[in-house]
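Cross-posting from the modeling subforum.

Setting up a comparison between two proteins and wanted a second pair of eyes on the formatting. Protein 1 (sequence, then structure tokens):
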Amino acid sequence: MKRTVLGIIIAAIVLYIWGFIYWGFGPYSTMIWKKSTDDVAAGKALQEFFPQNGTYFVPSFDQDQKLVETLYEEGPVAYVHMLSINGRPIMADFSNLIQGFFLNLVVIILIAILLNQVCTSLPGYLDRVKFVALAGLISAIFYDCGDAVWWMLDWSWELYQAFYGFSAWLVIGLILAKFIEPEMKQDSPT
């Protein structure tokens, strides 16, 4: 149990550092996200037409079906996430970082439970790493590529997110596979 807990803690710290590097220094804000032609005017329009925080789909589906079809055909069609209608500091408050760490920790615990359930079938270190990496790849493809397919979100953004998701699972697998081994099967992290 102690080895598993130690592996979870190390994985949580390393993943947090990896996330900081990936999201802090990555090109998404300058190379992947598109820019409006006028941020001030766009911001005012967003405040006027999207009056509260939340996710909007334009045109909305809760109106006459013929009108929705016409609006769809004429465009634009948009998926809008209002994050802070009244603004916020450029850097989110510290609680966001703490919540992110605990989210990572919960996911790592769940992956440790998963790995513990199958580790007797995965005798080698690389077998366990490949198992976790494959699960991460499946998750990234299903979730992020699914958003690109089903919601038509931008492929470059979704692939950027998918790569992070996969790489996070890989980092977790590289670490947990050292701490969760077949002879430890009875050592559950729960």
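Protein 2 (same layout):
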Amino acid sequence: MLRTPASRAVLRSLSSASPRSQRPILHRVSPQVQWSSQLCTLSATRPQAVALAASKTVANTFARQLVTSRVNHADIKAEKELGKQKLEPHPELVSSTSSIHPISGEVGVKEPEKEPDMLAGMKGDLKTISETFNLDNVPQQAYVIGLAGVIPYLATSLATVACAYEIHNAGTGSSLLLSEHSAELLLHILEPLQVGYGAVIISFLGAIHWGLEWAGYGGTKGYPRYAIGVIAPALAWPTILLPVEYALIAQFLTFNFLYYADTRVARMGWTPPWYGTYRFVLTFFVGAAIVVSLIGRGQIADRIGKLPSPADRINEYRENAAAEELANAAAAETAKENEE
């Protein structure tokens, strides 16, 4: 139908006459619909603007796709480069609780300090003692025989303490087995046994180095290793001439000196690796036995007599010989005077 001014007037009158209820309900449209409507409006009014807007939209979409593809491509490339790298260990970041860290925790971040363990020092000392006395690497035969060699020292030491207890409590009537006289007599028998046995053991420790030299263990060391075997008896046997207290102290120092020498040569490879630990254990028991004997004798030092030592006997022999010479000289003078 051709549109004329008359026909347009009729249509306007009909649209104004339609009821309000029949008017379409307007809903809020989305931005895309608005954009399309604007695009339609622009298409009706400005075709060039529509073409420009459409080209901008296509350009933006293409730019977003290009950026997305580049990002994805960069991630894949980075992952390939990381895959070629070699993993490096970091043990300082691993602990007994590193696998149970909370999700919010950071790897390598120090945990809050816990309350100090009051028994940590005692536990550390016990661990050190257990490691020190660990003789797993020592041959069983040497371990058994070495401990058996300590038994005479421990026996004489305990017997010395028992005798000292009997002598100390003799006046109170609380003695157990021996009288004061019997305990003192037994104590004087124990003195040369303990001192003489100590001298024998010290000499034996020096002889071990002669055996290692002859066996060629650690190579031939010559005079330095022979010297250890000579110094040991040179220090040990003069102690039998000293009073018992001084003899025990001198032997205690000699045992410690030989232990120091044995640990040094063990580090140098002159002896088996376990020899230093082995000597420490034996020296510990022997030194403890000597200290116990000295403590026991110190409690009764003013209540017992002292047996004459070899030096005392030598001095007594000299004095007797000098007195006998004087007596003979006096008798000879007297006989000469009588003859005259």
